[in-house]
Amino acid sequence: VFDVLVIGGGPAGSAASIYAARKGLNTGVVAERFGGQVADTVGIENFISVKVTEGPKLVAQLEEHVKDYDVDIMKSQRATSLKRGEHVEIGLENGAVLKAKSVVLATGARWRTMNVPGEQEYKGKGVAFCPHCDGPLFKGKPVAVIGGGNSGIEAAIDLANIVSHVTVLEFADTLRADEVLIRKAKSLPNITIIKSAQTTEVLGDGNKVTGLVYKDRTTEALKTVELAGIFVQIGLVPNTDWLKDSGIELTRFGEIVIDAKGATSIPGVYAAGDATTTPFKQIIIAMGSGATATLGAFDYLIRLGQE
Ligand code: FAD
């Protein structure tokens, strides 16, 4: 029986594991793919105290740091169920069941993609998902934001400060963002909003994005916009499908509901990072929340059996 079993090996899970091991707790970490989203990231310039790094390099450093401690690392393993009995029981895809006194859920999230030609090819070469991360790379250049929900309009307002021009493309004939955000976006001279626009292709020169093609859904006409960057803002999906039958409280978006100590609705079950209700999804925030969740679990463990 583990004292702390961490599910997920991204920044949140790595921090949770290290904090648990440093408390002398019997710690395990189950990760489908160690490193998580960081493994897919090209340049990272906002991991404070490290001016510039790259995803794969940071992943190797995370793993090296976790391996410095007595942590049972179970890679290429997928958790498929969570049940609370005497212990917390985590079922794995391979049929094994792991038992733990406490668990930290850190299974992260994934950006929803447009699934159009060119999108995968130009990921990290103009196709971006995180304005906080990649906005400054497009300083003074024109970009598009795909999606007119809150995250899309927030991204457009944010980017308008940095880039030369932002074109927002929304599939529907109305924007789904809050009225106050729409008003703010409309007040900025370098934001253009196009509704009923379906992006059909990302264009590039082989090295980087040069534009996109969209279909005007009212006339069916195809139009081209010249751009240096495309921010896809059509949703961040938490990796929590496997928790749907566990009884754990999730929001309607599938985010795990946590309190200030990372505690979920199930005693002994904590959560951290992009899979949770944390409002901002960033590496440094995921690491902090992983530390918080383990310290929350530690508080829980030292009280176990003392009632
Ligand atoms: P993740 O990194 O998503 O890790 C989740 C972990 O859980 C993985 O190990 C995964 O394999 C595992 N997992 C998932 N489901 C299961 C399961 N059922 N069983 C077992 N394991 C499972 N942030 C920044 O701060 N700066 C940047 O420059 C930056 N750039 C980014 C660029 C891109 C392209 C992307 C996609 C994201 C970027 N981010 C950036 C965001 C940042 O990567 C995330 O906020 C951060 O990785 C979240 O950490 P996490 O540990 O919560 O989740």
TrEMBL record:
<comment type="function">
    <text>Serves to protect the cell against DNA damage by alkyl hydroperoxides. It can use either NADH or NADPH as electron donor for direct reduction of redox dyes or of alkyl hydroperoxides when combined with the AhpC protein.</text>
</comment>
<dbReference type="GO" id="GO:0032991">
    <property type="term" value="C:protein-containing complex"/>
</dbReference>
<keyword id="KW-0560">Oxidoreductase</keyword>
<feature type="binding site">
    <location>
        <begin position="264"/>
        <end position="274"/>
    </location>
    <ligand>
        <name>FAD</name>
    </ligand>
</feature>
<keyword id="KW-0676">Redox-active center</keyword>
<keyword id="KW-0285">Flavoprotein</keyword>
<dbReference type="GO" id="GO:0050660">
    <property type="term" value="F:flavin adenine dinucleotide binding"/>
</dbReference>
<feature type="binding site">
    <location>
        <begin position="3"/>
        <end position="18"/>
    </location>
    <ligand>
        <name>FAD</name>
    </ligand>
</feature>
<dbReference type="GO" id="GO:0102039">
    <property type="term" value="F:NADH-dependent peroxiredoxin activity"/>
</dbReference>
<keyword id="KW-1015">Disulfide bond</keyword>
<feature type="domain" description="FAD/NAD(P)-binding">
    <location>
        <begin position="2"/>
        <end position="290"/>
    </location>
</feature>
<dbReference type="GO" id="GO:0016668">
    <property type="term" value="F:oxidoreductase activity, acting on a sulfur group of donors, NAD(P) as acceptor"/>
</dbReference>
<comment type="subunit">
    <text>Homodimer.</text>
</comment>
<dbReference type="GO" id="GO:0000302">
    <property type="term" value="P:response to reactive oxygen species"/>
</dbReference>
<keyword id="KW-0614">Plasmid</keyword>
<dbReference type="GO" id="GO:0051287">
    <property type="term" value="F:NAD binding"/>
</dbReference>
<feature type="disulfide bond" description="Redox-active">
    <location>
        <begin position="130"/>
        <end position="133"/>
    </location>
</feature>
<comment type="similarity">
    <text>Belongs to the class-II pyridine nucleotide-disulfide oxidoreductase family.</text>
</comment>
<keyword id="KW-0274">FAD</keyword>
<dbReference type="GO" id="GO:0005829">
    <property type="term" value="C:cytosol"/>
</dbReference>
<keyword id="KW-0520">NAD</keyword>
<protein>
    <recommendedName>
        <fullName>Alkyl hydroperoxide reductase subunit F</fullName>
    </recommendedName>
</protein>
